[in-house]
């Protein structure tokens, strides 16, 4: 009898969410990168989790390590809708020294190895390994089908990127049947795809295995003193050399509107984070957050609608080409090309231009902020001007190479002390 169930129903998603994301600087001082806010109401991790749910995967595990409280609290509040009696769940797996009192997660593969007994209890056939810190929409069922149809030991999710940009990634060399023939970490001369000499395939950090195969591989890797216990550095190159590794092109499973380009972003730097959020204010953004057929699930707070008040010259509460979340009060402030998260309160004569404002921020009168990222809970002093003089801004705040300014609460306190 042929098993006609979707492969996703016989699979689990294992989300790796332990990395700090140090390139986001002070934005990850208090939270791990997957817990960083994105898009007005979501967190970065919501994209991987939503992709899994929308693909039909209802058994998931989330491995955490660095400053995980914010992430764990978010998942408990926003992802508690699974029903264990239906064999669906999201297990949170902090690094808890389960193997040794001296041993935290030593690498991405070790995070799975230390939880082999838990994965065994899920009674699954396939495991989808996911990074929890990228922004994209993808149907993992398509990738699972390719994995089974091609009889692969591992299927690696790959982005098609210009060759000149591929040196920043792990790059796959493939043959005409998409079998991976080489895996090179940040090569100076990336191998081209068979169909286009100007393109290369970059690893997305997404892997599909049969659990039986991966389980044996992890046990062998754990006993290797020379291994860094990492999928990209150790396990995948070993399978490329000794087994069958297959590339899955993101274009084949990307969820998007017809004629829209594939959308994937690593918002791992301040500039990339600012740009991806501001892009959502475009007339037709490349990332469609309004698609009800592939929603991005998250914790939805109970807040009132956004409110705009005052209608006087130079004191008008307006938002132009912007996204304003619930609970915001725009009081006599001009907001342009900006994205405001929940419960942002602004005051008269202030101006926000191309700025990303995280939740619970208060902006006092006559502040002018341009190309800023403002961390959660910051109180912007009256008359503060940021984004008009980069040299002056850099004395008190974090200014990126491309001119994005990060403002955190400790920075504001230091600015006040210097006045």
UniProtKB/TrEMBL annotation:
GO molecular-function term, one example from the UniProt record: glucose-1-phosphate adenylyltransferase activity
NCBIfam families: glgC, PRK00725.1, PRK00844.1
Nucleotidyl transferase domain location: 13-281
Subunit structure: Homotetramer.
Similarity section: Belongs to the bacterial/plant glucose-1-phosphate adenylyltransferase family.
Keyword Magnesium attached: no
PROSITE patterns: ADP_GLC_PYROPHOSPH_2 (PS00809), ADP_GLC_PYROPHOSPH_3 (PS00810)
Name of the featured protein: Glucose-1-phosphate adenylyltransferase
Tree of life domain: Bacteria
Its EC number(s): 2.7.7.27
Pfam families: Hexapep_GlmU, NTP_transferase
Keywords annotated in UniProt: ATP-binding, Carbohydrate metabolism, Glycogen biosynthesis, Glycogen metabolism, Nucleotide-binding, Nucleotidyltransferase, Transferase
Signal peptide: none
Site feature location: Could play a key role in the communication between the regulatory and the substrate sites: 65, 104
Gene Ontology terms describing biological process: glycogen biosynthetic process
Catalytic activity: alpha-D-glucose 1-phosphate + ATP + H(+) = ADP-alpha-D-glucose + diphosphate
Positions bound to alpha-D-glucose 1-phosphate: 105, 170, 185-186, 203
The protein's role, per its UniProt record: Involved in the biosynthesis of ADP-glucose, a building block required for the elongation reactions to produce glycogen. Catalyzes the reaction between ATP and alpha-D-glucose 1-phosphate (G1P) to produce pyrophosphate and ADP-Glc.
Metabolic or biological pathway, per its Swiss-Prot or TrEMBL entry: Glycan biosynthesis; glycogen biosynthesis
Domain Glucose-1-phosphate adenylyltransferase/Bifunctional protein GlmU-like C-terminal hexapeptide: 304-407
Keyword match Metal-binding: no
Gene symbol of the encoding locus: glgC
């Amino acid at each position: 009898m042929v098993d006609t169930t979707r492969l996703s129903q016989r699979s689990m998603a294992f989300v790796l969410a332990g990395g700090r994301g140090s390139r986001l600087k002070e934005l990850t001082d208090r939270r791990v990168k997957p817990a960083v806010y994105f898009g007005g109401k979501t967190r970065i991790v919501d994209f991987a989790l939503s992709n899994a749910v929308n693909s039909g995967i209802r058994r998931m595990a989330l491995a955490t390590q660095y400053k995980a409280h914010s992430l764990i609290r978010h998942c408990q509040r926003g992802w508690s809708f699974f029903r264990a009696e239906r064999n669906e769940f999201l297990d949170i797996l902090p690094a808890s020294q389960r193997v040794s009192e001296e041993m935290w997660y030593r690498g991405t593969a070790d995070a799975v190895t230390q939880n082999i007994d838990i994965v065994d209890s899920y009674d699954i056939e396939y495991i989808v390994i996911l990074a929890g810190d990228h922004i994209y929409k993808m149907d993992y069922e398509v990738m699972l089908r390719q994995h089974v149809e091609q009889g692969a030991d591992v299927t690696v999710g790959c982005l098609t990127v210009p060759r000149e940009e591929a040196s920043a990634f792990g790059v796959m060399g493939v043959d005409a049947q998409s079998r991976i023939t080489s895996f090179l970490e940040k090569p100076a001369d990336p191998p081209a795809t068979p169909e286009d000499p100007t393109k290369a395939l970059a690893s997305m950090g997404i892997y599909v295995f049969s659990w039986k195969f991966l389980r044996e591989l992890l046990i062998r890797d754990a006993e290797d003193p020379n291994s860094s216990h990492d999928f990209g550095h150790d396990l995948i190159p070993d399978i490329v050399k000794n087994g069958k590794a297959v590339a899955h092109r993101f274009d084949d499973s990307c969820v998007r509107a017809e004629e829209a380009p594939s959308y994937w972003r690593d918002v791992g730097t301040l500039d990339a984070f600012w740009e991806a959020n501001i892009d959502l204010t475009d007339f037709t953004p490349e990332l469609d957050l309004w698609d009800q057929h592939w929603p991005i699930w998250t914790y939805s707070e109970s807040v009132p609608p956004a409110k705009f008040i005052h209608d006087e010259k130079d004191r008008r509460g307006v938002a132009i080409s912007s996204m304003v979340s619930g609970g915001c009060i725009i009081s006599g402030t001009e907001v342009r090309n900006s994205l405001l998260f929940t419960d942002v309160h602004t005051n008269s004569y202030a101006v926000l231009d191309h700025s990303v404002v995280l939740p619970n921020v208060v902006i006092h009168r006559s502040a002018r902020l341009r190309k800023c990222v403002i961390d959660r809970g910051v109180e912007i002093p009256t008359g503060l001007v940021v984004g008009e003089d980069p040299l002056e801004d850099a004395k008190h705040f974090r200014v990126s190479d491309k001119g994005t300014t990060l403002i955190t609460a400790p920075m504001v306190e230091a600015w006040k002390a210097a006045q």
